[in-house]
Amino acid sequence: MSSALLQNKHAVLTGAGGGIGLATAEAFVREGAKCTIVDIHPQASEGVVALIEKAPSSVQYVSTDITNLQQIDEMVATAIARFGAIDVLFNNAGIAIFEKLLDSTEAAYDKLFNVNVKGLFFVMQKVLQHMVDSGVKGSVINLSSQAGRRGEALVAHYCATKAAVISYTQSAALAMAPHGIRVNAIAPGVIDTPMWKQVDAMFAQLEGLEIGQKKEMVGKAVPLGRFGFPEEVADAAVFLASELSRYITAQTLNVDGGNVMS
């Protein structure tokens, strides 16, 4: 059911080939937005292809490596050329690597910070510059994580990158407030996406568990007693992208079933 909350808005969504990103693109389209879907893969995923087939005049796919600043520039230009000024950025692209702290490698550190911090920051910077130049009073939504709220033994670098997202969100929001541009973040908890198969397998290896055991334990530990769904994060994104949140900026919204209270 749509209430056209994003009618005539152009949204750019990174890391939107599947999971939370794709669910958010689908929600944005239902609310009337035109969407530029961005992911690193050369070809669009099946889910993105299906969305394009469903709404061919409202969706395009752009393959981009967000660690490459030239490719970010080209992506922004391609987005504008098709759908005009960018009103919303859903800055979602990110990766996770699991390592014991004492076994952690420089390569893992560099890769995580390159994508989750450098890539996210420069996508945000380029889109914000466009918004300022175009006079767009837009909304930027950065994807953090409950891991950005606290440390975790097996994902120290990942937690640090997601804490950095919260910090950059606050700084950008203050810098952009005079331009009428809002910058917020979402901190999802445990969300039932395909990535959790990989996460569960990593925990099984590192903690000596059976496949599926960690996921079951984690879901039961959530105060609401279950994993979240990508659509539930997407609903929060629709709110932050729309005029319903017009007096909200510099905030990080927890969508985590009560895991973190702040």
UniProtKB/TrEMBL annotation:
Enzyme Commission number(s) of this protein = 1.1.1.14
Q: Residue ranges of the Ketoreductase domain? A: 9-189
Provide the alphabetized UniProt keywords: NAD, Oxidoreductase
Q: Into which EC class is this enzyme placed?
A: oxidoreductase
Gene3D superfamilies annotated for this entry? NAD(P)-binding Rossmann-like Domain
The reply to whether Cytoplasm figures as a keyword in the UniProt entry is: no
NCBIfam families, sorted: PRK07067.1, PRK07231.1
Family, according to the entry, reads as follows: Belongs to the short-chain dehydrogenases/reductases (SDR) family.
This chain belongs to the protein called L-iditol 2-dehydrogenase
The species this protein belongs to is Leeia speluncae
Q: What is the lineage of its organism?
A: Bacteria, Pseudomonadati, Pseudomonadota, Betaproteobacteria, Neisseriales
